[in-house]
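pasting Cysteine--tRNA ligase for the record, 478 residues
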Amino acid sequence: MTLRLFDTATRTVRDFVPLVPGEVGVYLCGATVQAPPHIGHLRSGIAFDVLVRWLRRTGHRVTLVRNVTDIDDKILAKAADAGEPWWAWAMANERAFTAAYDALGVLPPSYEPRATGHVPAMVELMQTLVDSGHAYVTDPGDVWFDVRSYGEYGSLTNQRVDDMVAAPEGGSEDTRKRDPRDFALWKAPRPGEPATASWDTPFGRGRPGWHLECSAMAQRYLGDTFDIHGGGLDLRFPHHENEQAQSRAAGHGFARYWLHNGWVTQGGAKMSKSLGNGLLVDAVLAQTRPVVLRYAMTAVQYRSMLEWTEDTLRESEATWERLAGFVERAAEQVGPADADEVARVELPAAFVEAMDDDLNVPAALAVVHEWLRAGNSALSRGEADVVRATMVQLRAMLDVLGLDPSSSTWTTGAGDQRHAHALEAVVAAELEARAQARAARDFATSDAIRDRLAAAGIVVEDSAAGARWTLAQTRADT
Ligand SMILES: Nc1ncnc2c1ncn2[C@@H]1O[C@H](COP(=O)(O)OP(=O)(O)OP(=O)(O)O)[C@@H](O)[C@H]1O
Ligand SMILES: [Zn+2]
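structre below
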């Protein structure tokens, strides 16, 4: 059986044959860390986590590179509005993304390069493009890719240059460009931008364009030619078209397969910050266990749109309870299986077939549910051997999807923020009641509330801004 993947470049399903047998290099465009993530931002991380897990399970050594774009117009603008250094703004949001990936059981990438740490590699690539006549400098710091110089421009998205829209950086009215579609490799600082947000290059001082970052970082960690490049559907054009043009014009083979995941949508529209319909990961995790969110985001095929409704999490929770409930009861009856056994067991043929069919997770889950039904019958009949075998199979299949109920990712409660949010709400109500009692000079009540909180290990401090609370330090800390 061979893995077949839908390659966006050829618009066909192709057998996946890695460049080096048994080894796979994957580059996934990561976050531009300008804000904390909404669940749409996590879709690609989860989709490609399933790909990586499947490749590993089928015997491949996978190198996954997922970058962090930590310098960008929006980061600079938002940090300036907030009165913070741009790098502090980027770092805080990068941490929020990392916490979200961890909470949802997305395995860490092999390498997670930040754009700002790879300026020399970008300058080198840009130099190659300038030297070979594929890029040109207008004013110091402004370097453009010359789309007419590269005959294959448009091949990834099957477009003719004449039909394309102007590149957003310096639009069609920018007379310095040779063609309105030419896009920025390097951007001179704009008035008012901090000096720390630009770097010296042979072409003047400036900062990288987004497309150049990914080309340079992919080459740095995966080499001139690598297997799979992924990202959200909206990145195909211009981002991926431009990445490919830069790298191939520089003489590199670049990505051999292109995979794009669908969006999380609401009412058919892409969930997005600017539309105001972005559900922040943190807000969802205040009310839902991470595994339930992971299940909901994994259960669809990666290329499908995932339409988010009020019922999505409820349905996901009910299904998850049935799966995790079986594994728990089975382990009670026959004892737990060890991780090695789960990692080595031969998977059901129908499951393998579904995963090899362009990661058809819904079909793979249908197999999981057949096994679940059989497992539940075996449980009620007390057939220990069948229960055990089914438990091992279910855990193995679910592990491929990042959803093994016995994985420590889910059993330790890490990333589950519901307790913290519940505590926050209860203490806030207590403090409000105390404030009212004090306002009414009912000190007996206000003191009783304070004592009750202290007995629960909560220390209240009064300040001009109102009451603040912290958890009491343990004896060992004092
Ligand atoms: N709803 C979504 N579903 C899947 N992927 C998404 C979604 N929204 C954003 N992404 C991905 O996240 C990355 C950043 O996208 P983008 O900046 O468009 O998101 P956003 O911050 O919500 O959008 P906007 O700038 O319109 O508010 C891209 O890789 C994109 O593919
Ligand atoms: Zn990219």
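The first strand starts at residue 4 and ends at 7.
The two ends are 62 Å apart (CA to CA).
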